[in-house]
Amino acid sequence: MTTITVKTTVRSEMIDITHDVERLIHADNVRNGFCYIFVPHTTAGITINEGADPSVRDDIVTTLNKLIPWEGGYRHREGNSAAHIKTTIVGSSETIAVQDGRLQLGTWQAIFFCEFDGPRTRKVHVRFF
Ligand code: ZN
User: Fold this and answer.
1) Is 71 strand, coil or helix?
2) pLDDT, tens digit, for every residue of 38-94?
3) How far, in Å, CA of 74 to CA of 78, rounded?
4) pTM of the predicted model, to two decimals?
């Protein structure tokens, strides 16, 4: 397993990590199999969505903020329940096929690390099998 470090700069953002994952495929000389990505945090997750138009990720972050406001009368005393809820919605892992040394993402797809309680330094675990 390899761990990627992601430094986030604001409370909520989606960071494209596709190239970081592709670099690991080349470094490990992976040809065929699967890439498993796991985010070991409770207030940050991972998702796959459009990477071509940056306004898509902005719309996703903005809409999640509207649906799950930071102040919401939550019980959790740490005060970051909104981040926990968003993380559960986007999820903590993705599995992507690798063929001939390439991630089998669709033309418009990219892999996004999703920060919901930044800025922080985060980990993303990647394993090929
Ligand atoms: Zn918390």
Assistant:
1) coil
2) 999 999 999 999 999 999 999 999 999 999 999 999 999 999 999 999 999 999 999
3) 10
4) 0.96
- Ligand 1 centroid distance, CA of 78 (Å): 5
Q: Structure tokens of 113? A: 């690390």
Q: How far is the CA of 56 from the centre of ligand 1 (A)?
A: 27
In this structure, what DSSP letter does residue 39 have?
-
Cβ atoms 15, 8 nearer than 8 A = yes
Q: For the domain made up of 2-128, give the CATH fold.
A: Jelly Rolls (2.60.120)
Report how far ligand 1's centroid is from the alpha carbon of 51 (Å). Answer: 29
68 Cα–ligand 1 center, Å: 15
CB 24 within 8 A of CB 111: no
